């Protein structure tokens, strides 16, 4: 068994697709109509056959409340691994990404947290 798709709720699929592809560098794998929304997934450029990230609309009241509560409590919804946190932080700052936590050493890992502009906080980790 393996994880093939993981999802995050977003408050605007177009804005999320723009942010995750242009700012973060993920590659769009699927973008197909699904009712009034779309099934949009992205993958890492380093593993295009790997786990897909689904940009799921938060149109259900429970999803919207869940997303808003996590954001207001400062809780990241997911974690992305990077090889060099300081370099990635600096690259994203140049792209205009807003961080709520600068790179912070926590023993044998370093983490940082940013706002994805679509209702989520995302944590970066260097192990």
UniProtKB/TrEMBL annotation:
InterPro entries: Glyas_Bleomycin-R_OHBP_Dase, Glyas_Fos-R_dOase_dom, VOC_core
Record-annotated VOC domain positions: 1-127
Signal peptide bounds: none
Family annotation (PANTHER family): GLYOXALASE/BLEOMYCIN RESISTANCE PROTEIN/DIOXYGENASE (PTHR36437), GLYOXALASE_BLEOMYCIN RESISTANCE PROTEIN_DIOXYGENASE (PTHR36437:SF2)
Protein name: Glyoxalase
């Amino acid at each position: 068994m393996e994880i093939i798709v993981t999802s995050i709720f977003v408050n605007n699929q177009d804005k999320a697709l723009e942010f995750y592809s242009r700012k973060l560098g993920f590659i769009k794998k699927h973008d197909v109509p699904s009712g009034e929304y779309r099934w949009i997934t992205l993958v890492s450029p380093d593993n295009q056959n790997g786990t897909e990230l689904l940009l799921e609309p938060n149109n259900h009241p429970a999803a919207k409340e869940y997303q808003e509560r996590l954001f207001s409590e400062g809780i990241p919804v997911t974690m992305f691994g990077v090889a060099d946190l300081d370099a990635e932080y600096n690259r994203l700052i140049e792209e205009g990404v807003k961080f709520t936590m600068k790179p912070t050493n926590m023993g044998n890992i370093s983490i940082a947290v940013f706002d994805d502009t679509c209702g989520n906080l995302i944590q970066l980790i260097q192990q």
